[in-house]
Amino acid sequence: MQIVFTGPVVINVKNGETVHQRVLLIYGRAGPRNEKFQSNITVEHHATNFPSTTWPVFNSHFKCLVHLDPGSNNIKLILDKHGSKSPTTILQVNYIPLLQNPPLHLAILVAKDSKEVIDAPKEKDRSGENKLDSVIAKLRCAGYLWQAFTAEQMSRNEFGRRVFRLEEEWIEDTLSNQNPGLSQTAKVHIIRSSYTLEQILDPDIAQQNPNRKDDKKDLYSMFMDGLKEYGIPFNNQCYVAGLILDSHYDNSPDMKFIRGHAALGGGGGNIQLGIFGSHLTHAWPRHLEEVVGCFQDDTITDETILSNDAGESGTWWKCCNIGIGAFLHEVGHCLGAPHAPSGIMARGFNNLNRTFTVKEPNNPSPIKPSDENGAHWHRGGIIRFRYHPCFRSLSDPPLSIELKNLSADFWRLNEFILIKSPSGVSLIEFFVEESLRDYKEYVQYKNHQTEVRLKISEVIEKYGDNRIIKLNVVSKNQTENSLDNLRRFLKESKMTLPIYGEIIKSPYLGKLDERLTEFRVFFNKFTSNENKPVKLNRMVVKYGYYINGITFFWSDGTQLSVGKDRGNKKEFGFMGENEKITELKVNSGWYIDGFEIKTNLGRCSEWFGKHGGNDHILKLPESEMIGLYGTSDDLVNTLGLIYKLK
């Protein structure tokens, strides 16, 4: 019976599609559809210097990583037929790098007295694959794999091929092992640390050391110090994937963990940073031609010299998965993605190989996209990326400076929780006992929602009357705010007072310390004998980097001081009995960083304090603001509104 060969058919990319990454992941079918069949696809680039590459076909399935040049690319996909003319498909793809977006920077931290080598098996030592130049190539290749993976994930989630860009420069390229020459390729910054090898390898700061000492400067802080000392481009807002070169697996009986390694992601100030050690880098590809081989290398890890990280790196292809994938997990944190129930932000990186290859060691079946299991970004992370500045597309409306730092706030309206977010709500996450249970998304621009109402009884019924329910709101400007315990808030937010009747407390801003006593300040105080109010007529605010203290003065000469009397002092006085506070703009993080007052007469105070956290506008038109509450010790720790619904 004659076998009918079919030419390559690309499934995940449309002919003429526009993308924004240098390396494009292609999945397709070729050859006889229902028979065991192995061959190769050769990828050729028309009118470019980038060399041809070859990718396996397994039972008619294939995956390729295709290099693109800026502009229009005509890609030939040629099926190796072992004989006569080979079936060929031409795919046209437009690559538009979005240079206006902030990039992800790649960086390697090198100890002051580093030997500039990584842990590697002896055969790779001999070939020089353990040296710094090789590690640079490996990190560059990993960066393009992250980019290809993320663009494909965004596309599958129907957000187009949005993706972060890598910082690039014109240098000798390493993305192919066939000497492609000079090219615009990912820049890798070498951060020469002021810390010595002994300090970086100190077992007391090793993340995997169960007896590590938390009072010593940690590796994350050391990396941060290195970036700050390096200067440009790390002196402005930036996103960094940082590899620690000098990580070392110590197999001595009293150690048996990796020194000089930490898997952490997040950031502070202008630097968002994800870091990882180099202990698994020996298994990474340096070039596109090595990707399939590295993800299929079943060589047993020699645990006398190499780490079997998490007990899941017993073979080299698994080392490649965890090394590149767990590092991507930390980069995810750097880009704002939290831990998730599944995917890369869980431990789904153990399946990262399945994204890039159709064959897996000891697996007789081809790996289709539906078989990739944990190799995905969770939908919550995808929605965060959709509005991230690194993922902006040409069609996105301009970012509003006024809305850049404004966070969502929660308000109780009897039967509803009202969520107000001036920049628009993108995602509401529902946690039960700290586990993400559900989410609602608001991602269509035509349905841009600045307010969402949740019926309290429906939330309680769905997620459990006796459980801790947390609501986390992600706004389109990337800020997040949480209502940490819905049931507790409902219990404590309402009270009945003489004269006022039923009043409501908003959720507090800042970080609650249960040891501190709550203060309450009412703008109108009433005596027990008469209903004539005593008016709040001025406030004196003491501040530095945070709000240190506030003194409130009433018209009867009484006063209340909260916090400490130190720092700058400024006063705001009210004009007559009819002026009252109608709006507070507050900046807060762990503490109350600063605030300003607006009144019903249109007057606005100076800004008291600084801007170290997120901004909040405390104003609810369908209510009357009647007071403030909060906690304080050396600072004003928390602050919230007391209001009455109209």
TrEMBL record:
One cellular-component annotation, GO? cytoplasm
Record-annotated Jacalin-type lectin domain positions: 493-645
Which Pfam families does this one have? Jacalin, Metallopep
The record's InterPro entries line, in alphabetical order, gives: Jacalin-like_lectin_dom, Jacalin-like_lectin_dom_sf, Metalloproteinase_M10B, Unchr_Zn-peptidase-like
SUPFAM superfamilies, sorted? Mannose-binding lectins
This chain belongs to the protein called 12463_t:CDS:1
State the organism named in the record. Funneliformis geosporum
